[in-house]
Amino acid sequence: MNFEYYNPTRLIFSSGSLKRLGEVSVQYGKRALLVTGGGSVKRNGVFDRAVASLEQAGIAVAECSGVEPNPRITTVRRGARIARDEGCDLIIALGGGSVMDAAKVMAAAHYYNGDPWDMIYHGQPKPYLPTRALPVITVPTLAATGSEMNMGAVISNEETCEKSFVQAECLYPVTALVDPELTISVPQDQTAYGICDIITHVTEAYFNGVDGTPVQDRFAEGTILTTIQYGQRALADGNDLEARAQVQWASIVALNGWVNAGTNGGFPVHMIEHTLSAYHDVTHGAGLAVVNPAWMRFAARHRPEKFVQFAERIFGLRGKDADNLDCALEGIKRFETYLHSIGCPTRLSELKIDDTLITRYAQDTLRIIHDKHGNLPGRPPLSGSDIEQILRSAL
Amino acid sequence: MNFEYYNPTRLIFSSGSLKRLGEVSVQYGKRALLVTGGGSVKRNGVFDRAVASLEQAGIAVAECSGVEPNPRITTVRRGARIARDEGCDLIIALGGGSVMDAAKVMAAAHYYNGDPWDMIYHGQPKPYLPTRALPVITVPTLAATGSEMNMGAVISNEETCEKSFVQAECLYPVTALVDPELTISVPQDQTAYGICDIITHVTEAYFNGVDGTPVQDRFAEGTILTTIQYGQRALADGNDLEARAQVQWASIVALNGWVNAGTNGGFPVHMIEHTLSAYHDVTHGAGLAVVNPAWMRFAARHRPEKFVQFAERIFGLRGKDADNLDCALEGIKRFETYLHSIGCPTRLSELKIDDTLITRYAQDTLRIIHDKHGNLPGRPPLSGSDIEQILRSAL
């Protein structure tokens, strides 16, 4: 277990904290680019409350609205242009993962004269690693990606059907202002996809990480158990603020480094899902719900003992011994059944994806990221035909 | 659950990382004050290796050695003076919790013209809260206090028999360089006291925090389980590097905010122990081993359900129902038995403390910290006679 950890984002986690946006922002700038997604924050009044708080603090607001799910590099370019034209010195992301991710890359694009797509890892010989960005404040309205308190962003290129990531320390938001009340209005399907996203962030590190990370294993299991328990409450009653708060907190720790510190693993399920949603307009969490159980069944045959631990500690199953594949597979089945019970798809057909392009999904995934043997990093590393086999098992 | 979290310390956790000290330090300064404790780092060569790495990176080294266990304000004053006289622009703490705590306060004293004791919370009307400090790099040689990655320090005043704390953001080390190999030489008794310190950090937040922190509960339980399991291995074989590494990692997460984020609780066991070790030269972790089980038995009667959860999740006991006091007390007994089994004292008599000064311990603890009703903060808040009762039960 050898690793480095650094996360300087200041977290303010508090119901009703949206009203503090102005007071928090004024420490970092005077002209804010306020980035939003579709119209929901405008319809429910959150946008107006945010603007009011900013203006009360004397901050001028420029706007970049319309960031789409699976945010596009064209949108990043557009936002970066607005920020420059309007002389913004601060970017505020008010929305879900796509809004926060786009805002982060806009912030780095501000100091880069090339095309921001250069920053997104897509198999180019030398990706541009940004080292400077405008300060970003994240105000998440959805519990899912954990982008509010990490240094990652995922961006799509609609022209090339590529969806990939950038990670750089300058992308850490200066502050994450997390107000769980803002997630009260999230509809059931998006709530469920968010739950799947959270759990998948955790399982990626848990199953693909190095051996010998007992603290992280416990943190991972605790995060999954809490997400399942409070996720069900949030789905049963969207106005259950305590449940919303716990799910949102779980989404943050799932990907701010606390759960996966030192695990140093690949994220193969994410990589495969990114290719699917580059070709098809699939919600990330829904795509993960299909890919993750299929990947788990494949990976469990290579390393059953970790999947037995998962079955035991998450679902209370008893493995007869550590390499009891039946117990491992039963745990995966329980997990898949849970995802389906909360309204997530678990087959590609539910996403209206058939086998026509399966070879291409595998090739594209490997084109974006592969190890020196040409395989997708993870445990086990996956060849193109492994990826195809996983996807076929989920048809 | 309403809270703020901020921890900008960069963590490098890696066996053999001591050799990187120079390379890491040179980013922050050119003249380092190297703070150490007793002679162990000199006897085992760690001091020489640290100096060699620093000098190779072109860093001049001034020295402040001899920081005692329960570090004294006189030592802080001495170190701050050396740093000024030698023109140091960086402080490196190479040692255990006392060395790291003293170094942090020296770093803040550098920018404060008054007496550094003003910073230590001891019941004065207006404690001085430092806002600026020299950069500090921590290199822990003991797994215990977690001081390497937090903003706290505990300092004693030998003249007034006071021992208390300061917490300020400027005290976050810029980097914690954690090399578990450095803890291989820690003797069994200190290893055991460190284990008790780690677990007590976790139980304080767990039992005194607000209700409704399910993620933190799981993190706490996972940290305790890991500390017990790997602590036993480290005690059985001090050269077991993996066990040493896991215990050290547990010591860091126990008090860097990851386990206790949002719990917002008091630390009554620490406050009581601080008074004991202000009067008697007791190792902090050994004092905690006596006070914690006694406090637990007192507190369990007020809030058995959390102690039942502890008994169930840590020791696998089954509570008949959530307020089953028998189950709670059995869990506490198991915990006390565990502490004794690894060589910790669990009675005041083992620390050679009798009941002569019990009233004064209670009064002094409350003088340093109390709520508006004059009680020691915690669940439940403790009056002076409560504190006496707890201490008498541990005689």
From TrEMBL, chains A, B:
Gene3D superfamilies: 3.40.50.1970, Dehydroquinate synthase-like - alpha domain. It comes from the Bacteria. Residues 191-394 form the Fe-containing alcohol dehydrogenase-like C-terminal domain. GO terms for cellular component: cytosol. Pfam families: ADH_Fe_C (PF25137), Fe-ADH (PF00465). Residues 8-180 form the Alcohol dehydrogenase iron-type/glycerol dehydrogenase GldA domain. The keyword Oxidoreductase applies. GO terms for molecular function: alcohol dehydrogenase (NADP+) activity; butanol dehydrogenase (NAD+) activity; metal ion binding; methylglyoxal reductase (NADPH) (acetol producing) activity. Keywords: Oxidoreductase. Belongs to the iron-containing alcohol dehydrogenase family. This is Uncharacterized protein. It comes from Trichlorobacter thiogenes. The lineage of its organism: Bacteria, Pseudomonadati, Thermodesulfobacteriota, Desulfuromonadia, Geobacterales.
